[in-house]
Design goal:
single chain, about 150 residues, Immunoglobulin-like, 3-stranded mixed β-sheet, 1 helix, 11 strands, about 20% helix
Length: about 150
């Protein structure tokens, strides 16, 4: 009887520890969006690949504005999360200093007031299922480093 009781206690303890270990690993990965991404989807040869360009600028209120321009791409917020793949539609993901801050469904995004220092913004072009589009192994994205000087 002692062995059965010991086995049940040890088995329960180990099971609970494994469960919390798995859950903790998932939450740590979710905090670091660069590590926890949705994957990549290659745009096939012969398909007009999307492209993205942009700029980050300070507005008169001291807030920072992200402006992007895409070609061969249409924002389709109503389809976000769906498995339907069209190589010329979807949404974008915005990263600030390596952390995902939001999705983008249009050409402008207010980054808000930022701390002094060097910052980097990155915008990836994503399919409806959140995978990043790529061409020849390179993700389709816009990246800009900029400096914020508080007055």
């Amino acid at each position: 009887m002692y062995r059965i009781t010991s086995f049940i206690i040890i088995f329960s303890f180990v099971s609970v520890m494994i469960y919390f270990h798995i859950q903790n690993g998932h939450f740590q990965a979710a905090d670091d969006e660069e590590e926890h991404h949705h994957g990549i989807i290659a745009v096939p040869n012969g398909t007009a690949a999307p492209s993205i360009d942009g700029e980050v600028m300070e507005d008169s209120s001291g807030s920072w504005l992200l402006k992007i321009k895409t070609t061969n791409f249409t924002f389709t917020p109503e389809k976000a999360g769906k498995e339907e793949i069209n190589y010329n539609e979807g949404h974008a993901h915005i990263y600030l200093d390596g952390k995902k801050i939001n999705r983008l469904y249009g050409n402008y995004y207010n980054l808000g007031e930022l701390e002094s220092g060097i910052h980097e913004v990155k915008v990836t072009v994503n399919a409806n299922d959140h995978r990043v589009f790529s061409v020849m192994g390179e993700e389709i994205s816009f990246k800009e480093r900029f400096e914020v000087n508080k007055r």
